[in-house]
Amino acid sequence: MRTLVLLALAGLGAQLVDGSLGMAHGVISTVLLLALGTSPAAASAIVHFAQIGTGLVSGASHARFGNVDWKVVARMGIPGAVGSFLGATVLSRMSTAVAEPVMAVILLALGLYVSYRFTLRGVPRDNLGKPLRKRFLVPLGLVAGFLGATGGGGWGLIGTPALLASGRMEPRKVVGSVDTSKFLVAVSASLGFLLALGSDGVNWSWVLAFLIGGMVIAPVAAWLVRFVAPRILGSVVGGLIVVLNARTLLNGDWVGATTALSTPVYALLYALWAAALTYSIRAYRQEKAVEEAVEERQPVAA
Predict the structure, then answer these.
(1) Which residues lie below 8 Å from residue 262, measured CB to CB, with a gap of 6+?
(2) Rounded to whole angstroms, how far apart are CA atoms 253 and 71?
(3) Which residues cross the membrane (predicted)?
(4) For residues 128 and 9, what is the distance between their CA atoms, to the nearest angstrom?
(5) pTM, whole model, 2 decimals?
(6) Residues ≥6 apart with Cβ < 8 Å to 302
(7) Cα 266 to Cα 288: distance, rounded to the nearest angstrom
(8) Could you give the CA distance from residue 56 to residue 190 in angstroms, rounded to a whole number?
């Protein structure tokens, strides 16, 4: 029972981050499940089954607040569904000994990218309002869907930064569109895992725990996306993903790092994480000061 409560709280926290930032639900949930000893394929399956419900509620909530571009949802979500089905099939056929380090490397790379993307570059606003082309959205959805299924997370981690980097959509609509299209991806990935693993390969009580936690907070997260500071939250989430997956790699049999090696690595990662977060907070405050000065038509104090 204690495990189910913790999983529900984890699902709540993961959906709060995902619904307000457009990423990291799958990664946060998968890392926790792997720490509990779940196999990579089963962990990804549990997460995607839960995301069917959370994605549906989150999408409806974002649509209610006007955060969704339905053209982007269709052009990105459909190829994403194809990619996620293929990714689920591939992961289900990999041995655990191979799948664990592969998943950890994918998640670590995604965490590093998110940290770099939001800490140093922030949220671009160039080209706002220009249409996104199919030749950009289709391959983006296909790749994000595939890596999302094989890595246990990645749909939002790839899709959200890519759409933000285009500078053609408001951040709140990027988050809402990516979260809404996740429903299609989750359904397709779940079907792939169900065909490959069967229903016995999934712990349904854990799925329910994640589902309840995520569905409870999804409407709140959709509302918060209008006020949250993506730059700061991105640095927090990126650092968390990096630290957790570095731990997975260092503790695994494929590395088998000793305490003498792992301790300085952790110290370095935590120091870099703290530095990134500090930089993001300062940069965000400077951006807000500039915006307020422009609105008031007053010069910014040095």
Answers:
(1) 250, 251
(2) 46
(3) 72-91, 98-116, 136-159, 204-225, 232-250, 256-279
(4) 36
(5) 0.66
(6) none
(7) 33
(8) 14
The token pair that represents 252 in the structure block: 């695994």
CA distance 282 to 266: 24
DSSP 300: P
For residue 35 the two structure tokens come to 């720490």
Q: How far apart are CA 116 and CA 162, in angstroms?
A: 13
Residue 131 buriedness (CB in 10 A; 0-12 / 13-18 / 19+) = exposed
Q: CA 28, CA 256: separation in Å to the nearest integer?
A: 23
Element at 60 (helix H, strand E): helix 40-64
The full set of domain ranges for the chain reads 2-296
Query: CA torsion angle for 144, 169, 68, 175 (degrees, to 10)?
Result: 50
Look-up: residue for tokens 């285009």? 166
Collect contacts of 190-193 with beta carbons under 8 A, ≥24 apart.
Answer: 190/45, 190/48, 190/49, 190/52, 190/88, 191/85, 191/88, 192/84, 192/85, 192/86, 192/87, 192/88, 192/89, 192/92, 192/149, 193/41, 193/44, 193/45, 193/48, 193/49, 193/88, 193/92
User: Is it the case that residue 214 has pLDDT exceeding 50?
Assistant: yes
The more confidently predicted of residues 110 and 75 is 75
Q: Which residue has the higher pLDDT, 50 or 94?
A: 50
Return the residue matching tokens 């299209």: 181
Note whether 24 and 51 are within 8 A (CB). Answer: no
> 30 and 103 in contact (C-beta within 8 Å)?
yes
Written as six digits, the tokens of 163 are: 């759409």
